Amino acid sequence: MPLTDTRIDDGELLAAIDLGSNSFHMVVATTVLGQLRVLDRLRETVRIGAGLRANGDLDPAARARALACLARFGERVATLPSHRVRAIATNTVRQLRSPLAFLVPAETALGHGIEVVSGREEARLIYLGVAHGLPPGEAQRLVIDIGGGSTEFIIGRGFQALERESLQMGCIASTRRFFPDGRLSRKRWEAGQLEMAIQFQQFTGTFQHLGWQEVIGSSGTAKAIAEMQAKGAHDEGIISREGIEHLVERLLACSQIDDLDLPGVSADRRPVIAGGLLVMDTCFRQLGLRQMRVCDTAMREGVLHDMLGRVRQNDPREAAIAAMVLRYGVDKDHAARVEATVLNLFDQVAEGLELGSDDRLMLAWAARLHELGLAISHSHHQKHGAYLLQHSDIDGFSRQEQNVLATLVRCQRRDLQRHVLNELPGRMARNTIYTVALLRLAILLHRSRDHAPLPEVKLALNEGRAQLELPRTWLLAHALAQADLKVEHEALKSIGIHLGLRVIP
Question: What distances in angstroms separate CA 412 from CA 10, 338, 373, 403, 437, one per listed residue?
Answer without folding.
Answer: 41, 12, 12, 14, 8
